[in-house]
Design goal:
Elements: H1 7-23, H2 27-39, E1 58-69, E2 72-80, E3 90-96, E4 102-109, E5 120-128, E6 131-140, E7 151-159, E8 164-166, E9 182-195, E10 198-207, E11 212-219, E12 226-233, E13 242-250, E14 253-260, E15 277-284, E16 289-297, E17 305-311, E18 317-322, E19 337-338, E20 345-350, E21 353-358, E22 367-381, E23 390-398, E24 404-411, E25 417-422, E26 427-431, E27 444-448, E28 455-463, E29 466-471, E30 476-481, E31 490-507
Parallel strand pairs: 1-19
Antiparallel strand pairs: 1-2, 2-3, 3-4, 5-6, 6-7, 7-8, 9-10, 10-11, 11-12, 13-14, 14-15, 15-16, 17-18, 18-20, 20-21, 22-31, 23-28, 23-31, 24-25, 24-31, 25-26, 26-27, 28-29, 29-30
The structure holds beta-D-fructofuranose.
Beta-D-fructofuranose binds next to strand 1, strand 5, strand 9, strand 13 and strand 17.
């Protein structure tokens, strides 16, 4: 009987490979690093967000490998540095201690092997002993194997926080290890985690009839992976392909996050075509099955996709996501960069629902506090010092005698972006139609927001080209990009009938 190589041996070999790779990076990686170094000087930093992560130059999409390693939180991201459009994917790399201030690190992996020649697609990361393990999807198209279509395999790269080396025996999950009736071209985005000394991977896939499903694999050495079953298949008509699974424990429950493509709109939910949902349920490791009790869209804004989470040293579950939606033009391409991440959020469960709060670390960066209590708004109200393109607003509105109120953000003479609360329907409407953003397609969304004692509370984060709204202490969130010209920064409060507002503003300028 062939004996399996042990985890210790895999890690020992990986250490040697990392040393070799330091002296001898691949041509693709070297070219990318040189290109970024030369091009980043041409980017106008003034037009970049101050507290949201973007790539140094070029295109980014999904967060990848969000994990703690060596005293820092690491975030990798889908990256095509050479263009402001999507292309062969590299993994960009940034690190942070507080989720607000990021340091860009050299690109971690580039598409330089036969099994990832069409791109190093999304995946996740994990500290294993003293090494940093990344599991990702190789997108490839190798005709020598008799396959003319693109197909996807799962691969591992191991690093020391700086240099990452792909395992010699990649791919670690090949298409012949897929059960029958599973698509070979939609098999991607592994989420890796460890439980009771075993590694698990949840991988997105498409069943033969086009429905999304999540497959479960298990390994004791990172190299040999045994198929354990279909964790969950789409029986509930939530889109088709399910991308980017994340799965983790929170308050005694197992939470599954997925990003389904081509969702069918419901009244307020799932309007973005490709959207995201969370499920609250239980993962049965023995059966390899996930059962959910409830699900909902994670974020009701126009730009939110492919979230990933990690657990902090102090036990918080933090989520990050790509603040963008597919199939839209992204006007920042004119500036040499495309795409950004959301402000990371802490997740909690309350009464069977997911609650999302901006990471508390953002509060350390607040400056120039302005407080207005019991402001009576009837007609249009502008307040001294309440303006800006890098600000946090905290607003509590008493709507006792009103049908609606409106807050206009990024306001110029001809431009504005609106947050409108409709009291009768108890919904918050986000509208960037008049923002002159130049974004084609969908520009309005609505989200149910309950009144408590005739009041609604909003925390609004504006950063250069984005607006994120947290309603009622994180019960609902809306994240959207708004590419209104810089300099349009007024904020206006409007209501026909009397509403009373408590308003606090902080600048979030020098991060
Ligand atoms: C999600 C996604 C992933 C894929 C990656 C490619 O946004 O389509 O499924 O791995 O982007 O960049």
């Amino acid at each position: 009987m062939q004996t399996r190589i042990t985890l210790e041996q895999v890690l020992e070999n990986a250490k040697k490979d990392i040393r070799r790779k330091k002296d001898n990076p691949s041509e693709s990686l070297k070219t990318a690093l040189t290109y970024i170094n030369n091009e980043k000087a041409n980017i106008n930093e003034c037009c970049k967000p101050t507290y949201h992560l973007t790539g140094e130059v070029g295109w980014i999409n999904d967060p990848n490998g969000f994990s703690y390693y060596n005293d820092e939180y690491h975030l990798f991201y889908q990256y095509h540095p050479y263009d402001t459009k999507w292309g062969p994917m590299h993994w960009g790399h940034a690190v942070t201690k507080d989720f607000i201030k990021w340091k860009q690190w050299p690109v971690a992996i580039a598409p330089d092997k036969f099994y990832d020649q069409e791109g190093c697609f999304s995946g996740t990361g994990l500290q294993v002993e003293d090494l940093h393990v990344l599991m990702y999807t190789g997108n490839t198209n190798k005709e020598s194997e008799g396959l003319s279509t693109t197909y996807q395999v799962q691969c591992i790269a191991v690093g020391d926080g700086n240099t990452y080396s792909k395992l010699e025996s990649n791919p670690v999950i090949r298409i012949n290890e897929l059960p029958s009736q599973c698509s070979i071209s939609d098999f991607r985005d592994p989420k890796i985690w460890k439980k009771d000394n075993l590694f698990y991977a949840a991988i997105a896939n498409k069943y033969t009839d086009g429905r999304g499903q999540i497959l479960l694999y298990r390994s004791d050495n990172l190299l040999n992976w045994d198929y354990r079953g279909v964790l969950l298949r789409n029986e509930m008509q939530i889109g088709d392909m399910w991308e980017c699974p994340d799965i983790f424990e929170l308050d005694g429950k197992d939470i599954l996050l997925i990003s389904p493509q081509d969702m069918i709109k419901e009244e307020y939910r799932f309007h973005n075509n490709d959207g995201t949902i969370y499920m609250i349920g239980n993962l049965d490791y023995k059966q390899g099955k996930y059962d959910y009790n409830s699900y909902d869209e994670i974020d009701y804004g126009l730009d939110f996709y492919a979230p990933q989470t990690l657990e902090t040293l102090d036990g918080r579950r933090i989520m990050i996501a790509w603040m963008q939606a597919w199939k839209r033009n992204i006007p920042s391409d004119k500036l040499g960069w495309t795409g950004a991440m959301i402000l990371p959020r802490e997740l909690k469960i309350k009464e069977g629902k997911l609650i999302q709060l901006p990471v508390k670390e953002i509060e350390q960066y607040r400056k120039n506090e302005m407080v207005y209590k019991q402001v009576k708004v009837q007609g249009k109200v502008e307040l001294d010092e309440i303006k800006g393109r890098q600000v946090e607003l905290q607003i509590e509105v008493d709507v006792k005698s009103a049908a609606s109120f409106e807050i206009q953000l990024m306001k110029g003479e001809q431009t504005s972006t609106k947050a409108i609360y409709d009291v009768a329907r108890q919904i918050l409407i986000f509208d960037r139609t008049e923002s002159q953003s130049g974004i084609n397609g969908l520009n309005i969304r609505a989200m149910p927001v309950k009144l408590y004692d005739n009041k609604v509370t909003l925390r609004i984060f504006i950063d250069t080209f984005s607006i994120e709204i947290f309603a009622n202490d994180g019960e609902g969130t809306m994240s959207s990009t708004v590419y209104t010209e810089i300099g349009k920064d007024n904020i206006l409060f409007i209501s026909n009938d009397l509403v009373v507002m408590d308003i606090i503003k902080w600048d979030l300028l020098s991060i």
